[in-house]
Amino acid sequence: MMISTRKRISGKRLFVLDTNVLMHDPMALLAFDEHDLFIPMVVLEELDANKKGVSEISRNVRETNRLLDSLIGEATAAEIEKGLPLERIVNAGLINSKPMGKGRKGQLGKLYFETRPLQYNLSEVYPTQKADNTILKCGLALMHLDTSTQITLVTKDINMRIKASAVGLHAEDYFNDSVIEDADLLYTGMRALPEDYFEANGANLVSWQEGSFTYYRVETPEDNPWVANECLYTPEESGFSAIVSRLDGNSSILRYPRDFCSAHHKVWGMNARNREQNFAFNFLMDPEIDLVTLLGPAGTGKTLLALAAGLAQTLDDNRYSEIIMTRATIPIGEDIGFLPGSEEEKMAPWMGALMDNLEVLTQNDKGAAKWQTASTQEIVQQRIKIKSMNFMRGRTFMNKYIIIDEAQNLTSKQMKTLITRVGPGTKLICIGNIAQIDSPYLTETTSGLTYVVDHFKGWEHSAHITLTRGERSRLADYAQKVM
């Protein structure tokens, strides 16, 4: 298990699992190395109450139930009382990957159930009919039964951890789903070079032309930290910039990017307004890049850039047959409601950002007559489809340009479901701001968008850029800084 660096406890441990941990990640059963787990009976009751439905939580609960069923198998009551080896889940072949925790002693621990009532008198301020307080009582009872074992409650509920601390029970968050230790460590897609980098390395620099692109070969050390499609730049605003095309042994091939800041290289009437946006346009317009992730605060132009590139490649270049726009609705995975109309009409309230940006893009030509603008808007809207994520399982999208907005509210499993829907000739754009997560059980380090950025880093057909400069308006830019 990924244990917080703030609290590292050595020795044998027993982890009491809260219901929300298993609802969030069924594989948590295999994430605690050689340590033992304990599931209170009230947790099983809560799992049973949440097993029905089509939401992500319900699916996770059913997966947890299947894993527990395979663990118990034909075990007798006496065997369950003594604890069941978690290796049984692995041996049953119900998981497709290696267990996350493969203990330092070479084996997983045991799982214990609450087979007998655990007696502990909580204060009257903790009503025992509440499930959370019943779990606290179990943890405290275990502490008094075995003082030689460190008892830890694992829960994703902040208030539960607060209450546990108040009654003297050690509690931790579930850290195993964290992609990185801190959000500040997330790959940004850009790297600043020393101002004198090319003067210092100019002797071994080789340049050549291929088509409309200029390439450079520069010698790099064996421990070179660059990765494919990483953006390099020198600090001055008009300085040198390049994209790492590929790594070739002790040298790297760099490609000079197209200048989308120039009036001669507009994308559906739009120009890049800063270096970051220019890099983003290079990736969005590159047919060799299948996945682009754009992070950044409000007003940095994420949706506008993605939509402009999509329209240019769909309507002008005929590279894609249509644009599909979707976004996470909160609560994610639930029914989008019994609103009248089609799927697109039901999703319309969630697509304000799309409509706002479409209005900007279709009114760029100041000299166009009203009928021309209206005609353009109608043509554009015919090639843009709004879809709900709830209906994407089992589909295959071919030759589409897909934009997933507000992707920070998706889990890693949901992101995997969507990315694996992509067929030949399709480009996927994931947009989000990990500082604005609305999902109650996700954080900056556990978001599915963070997961995708980290796991696709360095793949030659994916690219990532973190936008930081606000371009919406001077008011929005100032508000972003001071509020």
Mind explaining what this structure looks like?
There is one protein chain. This protein is α/β, with parallel strands linked by helices and 483 residues long. The chain has 3 domains: 13-172, Rossmann fold; 184-255, no CATH class; 277-482, Rossmann fold (3-Layer(aba) Sandwich), CATH 3.40.50.300. It is built from 16 helices and 18 strands. The strands form 3 sheets. A 6-stranded mixed β-sheet has the order 3-4-2-1-5-6. It has a 6-stranded mixed β-sheet with strand order 7-10-11-12-9-8, with no helix packed on it. Strands 15-14-16-17-13-18 form a 6-stranded parallel β-sheet, sandwiched between helices. Helix 1 (19-24) links the parallel strand 1 (13-17) and strand 2. The protein is elongated, with a radius of gyration of 26 Å. Residues 1-10 and 98-105 have low confidence and may be disordered.
Give a short summary of the structure.
The chain is of the alpha/beta class and 483 residues long. 31% of the residues lie in helices and 17% in strands.
The shape is elongated
By oligomeric state, this entry counts as single chain
CATH arch. level architecture of the largest domain:
3-Layer(aba) Sandwich
CATH topological fold name of the largest domain: Rossmann fold
- CATH C-level of the largest domain: Alpha Beta
Order the strands across the largest sheet as they lie in space: 3-4-2-1-5-6
Spatial extent as radius of gyration:
26 Å
Q: Which bin fits the share of residues in helices? A: 25-40%
Overall mean pLDDT stands at 85
